[in-house]
Amino acid sequence: SAATDGNMRWEAKAIRVVNGTTNPLAFTQESSKGHTAWNAVDSISVSIGKGVTFTNKSSNTSYEGHMTWLTGNGNIHTYDNTNSTSDKVYFVQDHDSAGLNAWKAGKDIRTNNVTLFENKKQDNISNMQWYACNDILTNYGAWGTLGIDASGAKTTTFKNKSKGHMIWHANHDIDTRSKTEFISQQNSQGHVTWYAGNDIHTRLGTTANSVLGDGVNFTQDGEGRTIWQARNDITTHNAVHFQFTNNAKDWASLALLAGRNITLGGVNDTEYENAHPSARNEFKVETEVNDTVVLHSRLGYILTNSLVNIERKKNGASLTKLWA
After folding, report:
1. d(CA 123, CA 214)
2. Fewer C-beta within 10 Å: the chain N or C terminus?
C-alpha cells in the first residue's frame, strides 16, 4: 500500500518463472520509499503464461521507487510458446513520482513474446531502460522466412508520455527480429536513444520483406530527439519508418551515427529487389517541423539498397545531411 516503505525483492542464483495460463503474475509498487527488484547472480528466465505485469505507482518524490530486473552473469529471457498477441510482459509507470523501470543483463536481453514498456504520466521524469553487457535481441533465434512473426506475437513496444527517456544500450549488438515500435506521445519531452558497442541490425517483423508499418516504427509527437549510434555498422534489413509528422518542436531531431558503415534496405537480393525496386524494405523519414535529419558514417560508407524517402512538409530553415 501507499503507506508502506518496504521493498519487494527476489534474490537468487537464478530466477526461473513458469507462469500459469489463468492469471497474470503481477507486482504493484505503491510504497512511498520502497522498490521492487528481481536480482539473479546468473539469469532470469520467464515463461510468461497469462502475462507478467509490473506496475510502478511509487509516490516517492525523489523518484527512488524503481522496478528492475538485474542479472550478474547471465541473460534476461522472456518467452511465450503459445504465440499469444494479448498476453504480454508489461512494465508501466503510472504515478508522477514513479522511479526507473529497467532491465539490466550481464549477458543478453532476449524476448520471444509481446513486450510493452510504458510511461503514462506527463510530469514524470523517470526513464525506461534496457542495458545489456552483450546483446539486445527481440524475437530471439528467428531467422529467414521461418522467423516471420505474422501475427505480431513477438512485438516489442516502448511508449512514452513523460519527461523521461527511452534507452536501449548494448555493449555488443542491438538486433531486432520482431516488429519494434518506439512511440513518443503528444506532450512528451523525453529522448529516444539506441546505442550499440558493435552493430545495430533491424530485421524481419510481421513480413519477410516488409513494407512500412511491418518492421521498425518510431513515432515522435512530442519534443524529444531520436539517436541511433553504433561504434561499427547500422544496417536495416526491413522497413524502417520515422514518423515525425506531429512533433511539437524543431529540435525534435533524428540522427543515425555509425563509426563505420550505414546500409539501408538490406545486404543482398533476398532482401532488396534488383529487377523492380519497390517499397519493400523502405527507409522513410517524415517530418513536419524544421528539425535536423543526419545520417553520418564516420569511417565508411552510406549505402542505399531500397527506396529511401526523406519527406519534409514544412518550409523553413532545416538541415538534411548524408555525411560519409
Report:
1. 32
2. N
